[in-house]
Amino acid sequence: MDNGMMAGLFVIGTLLLTAISWRSLRNTAHHGFTRWLAWIGILAIIILNADVWFVERYSPPQILSWLLLTLSILSVALGVLQLKLQGRAQTGQRDDAALYAFERTTVLVDNGIYALIRHPMYLSLILLAWGAAAKDATWLTLGLALFVTACLYLTSRRDEKECLMFFGDAYVAYMQRSKRFIPWLW
User: Fold this and answer.
1) By the 8 A CB rule, do 152 and 172 touch?
2) Considering the entire predicted model, what is its pTM?
3) Helix/strand/coil for 179
């Protein structure tokens, strides 16, 4: 893919991600702002490595990549499904316009994958970034994956502050018995 096409795809992708995130971009202190930055970083990695996505399918970097990408899909699927089934998302009680509908949970979900980690969807994005970067691990793609990880760490911290404000002491107790991204470690 030539540089012009890559730049065009990046601009179009950034515009689409901005359209999806426009409500949270109005408040840079909201968790949606740093999540948007992470999405932009992931977009850049995917575009940079688009030419090698299916090259040497059975090489160690590709196997690592597909493992991380599979774990990414599993993490987001489990996280979203559980929030939708148990979170009782309602707009009347959580009127933060920057939240997506499934984020407007009114019940603290702390079982299933959420018993182990507080942010399976942010973990999914971290795994996506590193999985895409592993396709062709250059200084640029690895640097972007580190940038995405840092953005999602900040996103999780901001999200936790928002959850503390809504759920109070129940969320404090939940934070004490769960980890942020990696069960039993971090």
Assistant:
1) no
2) 0.94
3) strand
The token pair that represents 12 in the structure block: 């179009």
CB 120 within 8 A of CB 143: no
Pick from 79, 118, 117: nearest CA to 100? 79
Which residues fall within 8 angstroms of residue 137, CB to CB, at 6 or more apart?
61
Output 91 or 106, whichever has higher pLDDT: 106
Separation of alpha carbons 10 and 7, rounded Å: 5
The number of angstroms, rounded, from the C-alpha of 117 to the middle of its chain's C-alpha atoms is 13
Whole-number Å distance between alpha carbons of 172 and 168: 7
- Confidence at residue 106, expressed as pLDDT on a 0 to 100 scale: 85
Tell me the one-letter amino acid at 59. Answer: S
26: which DSSP letter?
T
- CA pair distance 43, 122, nearest whole angstrom: 15
Q: Which two three-digit tokens encode residue 65?
A: 């990549």
Least reliable range by pLDDT among 25-29, 48-52, 126-130: 25-29
Q: CB 100: neighbour CB atoms within 10 A?
A: 12
| Rounded Cα gap, residues 110 and 97, in angstroms | 24
Task: Tell me the H-state helices in the chain.
Answer: 3-25, 31-48, 60-86, 113-116, 120-134, 139-167, 169-177
pLDDT of residue 94: 63
